[in-house]
């Protein structure tokens, strides 16, 4: 009688046969290309979640459950890829810099995907489009970061990381950004907790749980949680990978010539060498800034419209003293 392999064994066999080099290259290019292309449009569109949600919609999803689901995609993708370690014959050493960076990444997502939503007293409904978009972002991101950290390229770059000041500077920035992100999120959560305790939760009065946040970096900017998250991933990228080679960027005149010819593929091709030189940690940071900056701008405008003269006039949007 022939032995039939289990479903898991068949899936594992298929995973081992994937051309990960091609998947990695294409995923990284698109991860850089898509946020760059949609960046201008997102200044005019409010993704339907958070303060811009549409709770009356028939498609509205539970805010907390949908958040947990879509954010868990990234660490799940990361762990699967790390287990496969497609660009290295051996798994990570427990004491290696790559393993430490892996721990930092997973720590972030334990907080973001599990602890943060579970300590949230309420969260506005989300739209299925937001969940789908997040899955298409988080899945490739987890894959790219794990594929890089388990690669021989990362092992070479991080060979002497524990004796390199840049590595420790990156870790310090990561820790400061991570702590700052949690602390400023807690300020927002406390607003909701106090509102709920006073009977002003969103179930009773739409939007009343939104108030002007104060304290720490909220003195200077409307979105310190965004800013701190950027600092966190800047530190991670600085510690984990070489700087992108800006010398590979095409000349402006060359780009303008391609644009005038109306060839989108030609324009994209001009940036291929640069995109291929960008390590996934830097690609992640760039994508975060490109996707979050427009939302911060529109959110700041929302604060001004909602609270008018009561909103601190000198408060910037997302970068203290600058923007």
TrEMBL record:
Entry's family note: Belongs to the steroid 5-alpha reductase family.
PROSITE patterns (UniProt xref): S5A_REDUCTASE (PS50244)
GO MF terms held by the record: oxidoreductase activity, acting on the CH-CH group of donors
Keyword terms, alphabetized: Membrane, Transmembrane, Transmembrane helix
Localization terms from the record: Membrane
GO cellular component terms listed in the entry, alphabetical order: membrane
Membrane topology listed for this record: Multi-pass membrane protein
InterPro entries per UniProt: 3-oxo-5_a-steroid_4-DH_C (IPR001104), SRD5A/TECR (IPR039357)
Full protein name: 3-oxo-5-alpha-steroid 4-dehydrogenase C-terminal domain-containing protein
A matching Pfam family: Steroid_dh
GO biological process, one term: lipid metabolic process
Transmembrane regions: 30-47, 68-87, 130-155, 167-184
Residue ranges of every copy of the 3-oxo-5-alpha-steroid 4-dehydrogenase C-terminal domain listed in the record: 130-244, 271-323
Species name: Heterobasidion irregulare (strain TC 32-1)
Listed Gene3D superfamilies: 1.20.120.1630
Highest taxon above the source species: Eukaryota
